[in-house]
Amino acid sequence: MQVPNFIIMLGNRRNLIFRVSIVFNIAVFLYAAVHYSGNSPQGVEWVPITSDGSERAAELRYLKEDVRNDTVLKLIEPSARIFGEFTSQKVVPSTMSTVKQKEKRPSTTADVDKKISAVPSEANIINETLEAYDENVLSDSTLTLLRALLGCNDKDFIPETMQRGEFWVLKNYVRANHGAISCHESITYTTHGGFEFLDNLLPLIERWMAPVSLAIHAPGSDMLPTVNSIRYLRDCTSSDLVMQYATFHIFFSNKHIPSNIPDPEIFLKTPYNCTDKPPYVVNSSTTYKQQKNLLYPINVGRNIARSAALTHFVLPSDIELYPSPDLAAKFLNMIARNEPPLSTSTNPRVFPLSLFEVDKNYVAPWTKTELQSMLKNKTAIPFHKYVCPTCHNIPNGKEWMAAPEAKYMGVFHVGKRIGKQSHWEPIFIGTNEEPYYDERLSWEGKQDKMTQGYILCVKDYDFMILNNAFLVHKPGIKYYKKNVKRDKIGSKQSSYVRNVILPELKKLFGVKHGCVL
Ligand SMILES: *[C@@H]1O[C@H](CO)[C@@H](O)[C@H](O)[C@H]1NC(C)=O
Ligand SMILES: *[C@@H]1O[C@H](CO)[C@@H](O)[C@H](O)[C@H]1NC(C)=O
Ligand SMILES: *[C@@H]1O[C@H](CO)[C@@H](O)[C@H](O)[C@H]1NC(C)=O
Ligand SMILES: *[C@@H]1O[C@H](CO)[C@@H](O)[C@H](O)[C@H]1NC(C)=O
Ligand SMILES: *[C@@H]1O[C@H](CO)[C@@H](O)[C@H](O)[C@H]1NC(C)=O
Fold it and tell me: What is the pLDDT of residues 27-47, one digit of tens each?
């Protein structure tokens, strides 16, 4: 595993900050606990608020002894862990979670604001205060602004066993140690896979450094190596990043229920024996899924992972696609600045990322500038250039590649899914309000994101392409290989989409000139 030095340093600094904040927050907790036992109204106010009307439920849960213990963990300075910044604001979590009005700022944060010169706004972003403006950090004032702008609701972070069509879902089976997160303070990378893809998780998180929601398909005997892989990644890798950021959900068909479903409460108490090789390093033809010839229910996984995210913004992606670093903070700072076209367009919007592949002997580029020099000497190429050159074309893609890295994250171009892009299956940052993925489609059948693309087109979405953000596939350039079996499933799925799903979508969402599947 190649880990750049500065990541490790960052990790250490993070740990120190983390420890300081634990001590700090335990003090706050004790204070609040005393307060609460006195039944004072302030004590109630302090309970994390999950959404409108659920204060009472949160309060009742809080009264339970075990949850109160849990709350100590949850209080640990979320923004410190998400972005490595220690701020004092979280000592008054009640104010953070109750800002509802758009204009009015809570008086309790005023003191904090005074200490921060860089309130990012359209005016001072251009001005000298900008010296202090770091788009890789979310300041307290930016967080306050985001809270008001997004008006999102915080979500519970509890394990649940639920059903989704023919699938059983163990939601939040193993939770990241980050604890509760407010919906405005980070972005969740949401993804899916079989355990044999988990080698991608650490390199992905090293670049993302924010929450990851991962749905793992674990039918039958794939369950045990899945659990072992999770344990290995949490206990046996060179950093604690997986433990900090990754939340695992498990799903399997009701026809392939594992014979044994280990209880995380128990297995997480025992450290994994790290002497063996990583359990996710297997010949993929040996998995239960392959042996039983099961199709991969890709969109079930996508939807589970996305809907379980705690944050307002999500990046639904494929686990082999590694994001450009510090994307979450840069993106949220851009949202908080709210410059045109963000402030001017009234259409619904998503934020597509440009996609690339790099040679297997190279590390994924860290910045757009680095990416451009790799494109020049062909050690990087546009995604699927040799597999399906037009599938992932983004509008103004050539211009994007030619344009130098901008100083700050922004919108490069606003595109639509029409004309040359009418079959586009973009990967984008969006929210849970965007249409979900059709769960009847399999990965083997291909074009599994088309139906979502069609709905986005009919709803006249703006595709706000980000200037500096990109995704790089796990190193190794792909070439077209004929796969007779997959082609057969593909043509079946394609006719199903045209003959069954499209008429449904037309009834539900209507039609629009230029919108096709
Ligand atoms: C809280 O957790 C600690 C350690 O996990 C445990 O020893 C203690 O009994 C718990 N307290 C309550 C009230 O559950
Ligand atoms: C930038 O600062 C200067 C002086 O410090 C001020 O005159 C000018 O109006 C400011 N510009 C903006 C856009 O705020
Ligand atoms: C871990 O596994 C190795 C080899 O399987 C074994 O030799 C070793 O004793 C185990 N360690 C522990 C702590 O169980
Ligand atoms: C994986 O196993 C299959 C069947 O046992 C074998 O044909 C194939 O060569 C193996 N692949 C690798 C990469 O070892
Ligand atoms: C291509 O460019 C990258 C980035 O500048 C550089 O690291 C790499 O060595 C170059 N490779 C070749 C084969 O020229």
Answer: 545 444 444 443 333 333 333
DSSP 8-class letter at 324: P
Instruction: List, in sequence order, every residue forming a beta bridge with 187; answer none if it has no partner.
Output: 313
| One-letter-per-residue 3-state SS of 39-99 | CCHHHHHCCCCCCCCCHHHHHHHHHCHHHHHHHHHHCCCHHHHHHCCCCCHHHCHHHHHHC
Q: Is 31 left (phi over 0), alpha (psi -120 to 50) or beta?
A: alpha
| pLDDT tens string 361-373 | 999 999 999 999 9
How many angstroms is it from 467 CA to the middle of ligand 2? 26
Task: Extract the tokens encoding 148.
Answer: 């008001």
Q: Are strands 167-174 and 246-253 parallel, antiparallel or unpaired?
A: antiparallel
φ, ψ of residue 178 in degrees (nearest 5): -65, -15
Closest CA to 205 of 176, 167, 180, 162: 176
16 neighbors 77 (Cβ within 8 angstroms): no
B/e letters for 252-262, b = 16+ CB within 10 Å, e = fewer, are bbeebebeebb
Identity of the amino acid at 282 = V
- Residue closest by Cα to atom 5 of ligand 5: 373
pLDDT surpassing 70 at residue 98: no
Pocket of ligand 5 (CB under 6 A): 373-374, 377, 379
Does residue 109 surpass a pLDDT of 80? Answer: no
Confidence band of 209 (pLDDT split at 50, 70, 90): very high
Say if residue 352 is preceded by a cis peptide, omega within 30 of 0: no
Q: Which amino acid is at 41?
A: P
The Cα 51–Cα 98 span in angstroms is: 10
- In the chain, domain spans: 45-150, 340-517
C-alpha of residue 69 to centroid of ligand 1, in Å? 6
Task: Encode pLDDT of 457-472 as tens digits.
Answer: 999 999 999 999 999 9
Torsion of CA 343, 344, 349, 351, to 10 degrees: -60
| C-beta of residue 365 within 8 angstroms of C-beta of residue 472 | yes
Q: Is the CB of 123 under 6 A from ligand 2?
A: yes
Instruction: Mention every residue, 6+ apart, whose C-beta is less than 8 A from residue 6.
Output: none
Distance (Å) from CA 285 to ligand 4 centroid: 7
Q: Closest by alpha carbon to 192, among 72, 319, 310?
A: 319
Q: Is 275 a pocket residue for ligand 3 (Cβ < 6 Å)?
A: yes
Half-sphere CA count of 164, side-chain side, radius 13 A = 25
DSSP string, 150-207: H---------EEEEETTEEEEEEEE--TT----TTS-EEEEEEE-GGGGGGHHHHHHH
